[in-house]
């Protein structure tokens, strides 16, 4: 296992097993005793243990993986899945919000408009990208790019990983609510296929502002929710320490949300999470995108819009 | 997250609510004096009612519930409610310090409503319109599946009937107990507004005390015309969340209707007494120009 | 003559004659001498003199009238020509630029979207309205209202009185050039009749940004130019004192511009200029607007757009 | 008003221009050394040419004329000029310290051009496009009737032929000597871009040193994609006008391409050496997606 990662709490047992294997190997080398069989058995057991662990993660554990500092960011995916990515900066109104990045590109030869929220991996980067929390101007840039894609018949792909839209004075002054709302409304009018993928955190209206799509996917260890479990806990339980309970109650995983038809599919991550193998994660992402575009491209604009409308129209559970 | 504020501010608010509610429910108390939340002057309850629940002293606009709003705004007896029976489920079996089902029961008992919005058709100065009115008393006016569904159905019905739409908001944000399902109501209602846009149906919103979170970030702020009621507090994130983020106090007029107009986010601010007249004029002018359109198409 | 006005230089002779008439009247009252005939003759002569003077104003004199501090502003016209004016504030993006004001209204019962630049009459007002110099956000507010009018089939009327778009740091940062350019382009796409009237100063791109119209009118003593005569003089003559020469050379009056088909008509002002009779000026304005709307309303969207396109398409003089 | 700057800065500029021009016009001088305007290092003229007139030392991008730009950008011999013969009139009989006719003659003699723009068709990596290239040497690249007419005709022709368009700007603003006629070229060209939009023709602009005033406020900044060349100064109002208005000095990077990108006004900044490749890729991706469109329409 790659030791450059700081292990999450629940990863520690894995590290212990792997350390043990390492020890046996060293012992074998040092002493010449044949420990092949023991090592092989232990390795198998380790994999089984991991598979079981990762198939049964609690929402809180998934939350931790989704926020892992080494998890691939939007720009990592751009690097791994696109050819000729040409970034289109700015809202044309005074701001180039770095928390949302977008541009035209080809994915497996398919032209797309690719837009996503960007997080940093270092403190410096996090400040630059505002921890992946867009300002209203970021949503307006995205809207400009949506219109561009619409005009030139490019499928839109959004990759979402945000703890939410930024809650700040200036954000309120320049209309965080309006910016998100206008995106929701305008995405409904677009004539091209839209594919949204929650790659990490899909938190509240800030995530939804890029996700009124024909197809919505989630990476295996991402989450999607109306409010962060921490925020929910501090309001409903009046204690942020109840975040675990809130995470459970909020039903934030791909499997949960597929039940309510909010999400169309889960994209497999490498064992241990996306941060263990960026390339493989990107490959799965890319294949899902291309498969979806192929499926949607045969439909005309009217159908695409009507299907998108009906998709969201049906969401909700109530008594009548 | 914006609900946080409203919960935090509960005590103050409860007091106010109690006073206002009491006047509505109880004949004995109806004769009582009410204290203005803003200027502290003592007001005769009936006078306050007659004054549309606006303090005659300082112009403070008391928060009002959906039924009262409809009475104040529409021509008498013109309102016909639709989809009144739609009521909330508990799809997530949500339990926090109390379970969601219980919260629903309490809210219903308190308000007589099935959920936080009333929808229907009515008239203003004889002009028909479709109307959605949120009620903050029902679980902080939070938007769950029922609010989303009723607002969406109303918009769809208005498109069908070619009527102008007025959505009156008062909400702390999304209904957390429905999690992503409640989040999706933002998309659902906004998609319905998109349809209204494409059919060139006039869609107006009136933002009233308070409008926050998921409602601000969906059908509340995408009106062709957005009116804010005088003094109403309107925002995306709650005051406390922002204060925690930026670690400093906010100016006292932050997120007021007046503040929002200064920052270009609402078309106009209206005194409660002017509301009916303003909305009536807006509908009239748009009806006239649309008529021209029909003519010129012939 | 209304003495509350500070006279312009060339108005002084009029004031002198009128003072003389006043003197004669007083003399007659005091002494009992019958001066009726003299007074009547002098009064006639005064009117004749005025008529001749105002029919032959130099461009510089027109410039002075167009900038007269008592000249009616946009809000004066709103008051005088509309019923039910409902102002629509803001660009929905963080700013309500007060230098551009707009809203829906009825003019003689006709619904319109009425938009104009606003100047102040006092120092305080001038600061509030930024001397009628819009920021980019003002143009964006106007564009929002254009779209609104387009959606609801309302004719658009713009009243223009601006020394130009504001040249400032923030204006550059939020895209003064882009904001104007986008208005030019988007006005070309609108499906409703557009009528633009230069009511005072029609200076450079800042004026044009509201004036890509089907019909363009000028008040009699307004001017319309690519650059203020002062600015032109300081560049080409390298001396702002040559503004008079520049005003002459730039051909800035309605009559000049009608020759080049840049302006469709001149709207008559009261003798002495609009500031002598706001009501009469407003009446002339209102009648021109209504006549134009009646003429344009019979045309379908395609025709309106094509005519607007061809109108500007033909502008320009060159050799081939 | 933005021309003011450029006139004010003339002396410095003349020096630079003289050096650059000399290399082009005179074989003797062609062997000379050129001093970099930015870093002051002495450069061998031929090397500078080979380096696309970019200082190999400090990356300073020398301003280049329209012919050179076309040579640098298009596939060899692919350019076909149109409307070359359109030349300026003097509709206003404009005389300032010199008459307009004389200024035209001098500019023509200096540049060999009839006015401040060259238009035509060409290819980039074998992909056809319509091209308008402004030339600052002709009366400060000012836009009068000829520039407006040629740009408009080019756009109309591109719509007809369904070709992508690239407008390369370099201009001090409007041609004052044509007053309102020059102002109207802003409207005319922008209306033509509107038509291109409606026909979904890709319209790109490349803003180069310097782009100001009427060109910034019309066809320059309404590209579907706006590229700014590295280091170019771009703005609406001129530096001096702003300094006079606000009565303070401006930061040195004010109105540079980099500044504009920070403020969200251009899609990207390109080094001169990357330009051809970037534009080629943009055209390629859009051509592919438009092709899909045609397919799916069938
Ligand atoms: Zn009070
Ligand atoms: Zn250098």
Q: What percent of residues of chain B are in strands?
A: 15-25%
CATH homology group of chain B: 2-enoyl-CoA Hydratase, Chain A, domain 1
Task: Give the fraction of residues assigned to helices of chain B.
Answer: 40-55%
Helix and strand content put the structural class of chain A at: alpha/beta
Any idea what the CATH superfamily of the largest domain in chain A is called? 2-enoyl-CoA Hydratase, Chain A, domain 1
Q: Please tell me how large the radius of gyration of chain A is.
A: 21 Å
CATH topology of the largest domain in chain A, anyone?
Answer: 2-enoyl-CoA Hydratase, Chain A, domain 1
Q: Low-confidence parts of chain A, pLDDT < 50 over ≥5 residues?
A: none
DSSP helix count of chain A?
A: 14
* Number of DSSP-assigned strands of chain B: 10
Summary tags:
heterotetramer; A: alpha/beta; 2-enoyl-CoA Hydratase, Chain A, domain 1; 8-stranded mixed β-sheet; B: 298 residues; alpha/beta; 7-stranded mixed β-sheet; globular; binds zinc ion
């Amino acid at each position: 296992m790659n030791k450059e990662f700081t292990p999450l709490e629940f990863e520690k047992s894995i590290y212990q097993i792997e350390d043990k294997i390492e020890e046996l190997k060293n012992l074998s080398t040092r002493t010449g005793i044949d420990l092949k069989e023991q090592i092989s058995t232990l390795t198998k057991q380790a994999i089984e243990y991991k598979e079981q662990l990762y198939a049964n993660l609690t929402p809180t554990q998934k939350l931790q993986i989704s926020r892992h500092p080494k998890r691939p960011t939007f720009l990592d995916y751009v690097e791994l899945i696109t050819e000729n990515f040409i970034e289109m900066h700015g809202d044309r109104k005074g701001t180039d919000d770095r928390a949302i990045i977008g541009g035209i590109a080809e994915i497996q030869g398919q032209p797309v408009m690719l837009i996503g929220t960007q997080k940093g991996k270092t403190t410096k980067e996090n400040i630059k990208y505002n921890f992946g929390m867009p300002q209203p101007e970021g949503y307006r840039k995205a809207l400009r790019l949506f219109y561009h894609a619409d005009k030139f018949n490019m499928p839109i792909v959004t990759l979402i990983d945000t703890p939410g839209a930024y809650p700040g004075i200036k954000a309120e002054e320049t209309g965080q609510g309006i910016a998100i709302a206008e995106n929701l409304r305008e995405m409904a009018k677009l004539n091209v296929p839209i594919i949204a993928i929650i790659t990490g955190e899909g938190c509240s209206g800030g995530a939804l502002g890029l996700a009124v799509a024909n197809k919505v996917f989630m990476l295996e260890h991402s989450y999607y929710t109306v409010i962060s479990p921490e925020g929910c806990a501090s309001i409903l339980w009046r204690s942020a320490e109840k975040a675990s309970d809130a995470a459970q109650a909020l039903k934030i995983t791909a499997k949960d949300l597929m039940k309510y038809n909010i999400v169309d599919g889960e994209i497999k991550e490498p064992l241990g999470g996306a941060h263990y193998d960026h390339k493989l994660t990107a490959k799965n992402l890319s294949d899902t995108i291309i498969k979806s575009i192929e499926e949607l491209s045969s439909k005309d604009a009217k159908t695409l819009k009507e299907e998108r409308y009906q998709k969201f129209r049906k969401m909700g559970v109530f008594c009548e | 997250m914006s609900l946080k504020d409203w919960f935090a501010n509960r005590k103050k608010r409860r007091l106010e609510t109690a006073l206002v509610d009491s006047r509505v429910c109880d004949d004995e108390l109806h004769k009582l004096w009410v204290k203005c939340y803003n200027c502290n002057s003592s007001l005769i309850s009936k006078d306050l009612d007659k004054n549309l629940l606006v303090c005659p002293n300082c112009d403070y606009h008391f928060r009002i519930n959906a039924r009262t709003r409809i009475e104040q705004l529409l021509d008498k007896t013109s309102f016909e409610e639709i989809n009144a029976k739609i009521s909330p489920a508990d799809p997530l079996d949500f339990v926090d310090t109390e379970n969601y089902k219980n919260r629903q029961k309490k809210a219903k008992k308190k308000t007589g409503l099935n959920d936080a919005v009333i929808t229907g058709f009515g008239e203003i100065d004889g002009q028909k319109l479709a109307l959605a009115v949120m009620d903050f008393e029902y679980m902080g006016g939070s938007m769950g599946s029922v609010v989303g569904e009723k607002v969406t159905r109303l918009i769809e019905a208005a498109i069908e009937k070619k009527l102008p739409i007025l959505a009156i908001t008062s909400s702390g944000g999304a209904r957390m107990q429905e999690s992503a399902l409640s989040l999706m109501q933002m998309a659902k209602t906004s998609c319905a507004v998109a349809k209204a846009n494409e059919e060139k149906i006039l869609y107006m919103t009136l933002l009233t005390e308070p409008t926050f979170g998921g409602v601000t970030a969906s059908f509340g702020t995408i009106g062709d015309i957005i009116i804010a009621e005088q003094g109403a507090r309107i925002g995306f994130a709650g005051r406390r969340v922002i204060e925690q983020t930026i670690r400093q106090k906010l100016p006292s007029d932050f997120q007021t209707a007046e503040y929002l107009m200064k920052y270009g986010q609402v078309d106009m601010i209206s005194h409660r007494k002017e509301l009916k007249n303003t909305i009536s004029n807006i509908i009239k002018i748009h009806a006239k120009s649309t008529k021209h359109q029909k003519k010129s198409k012939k």
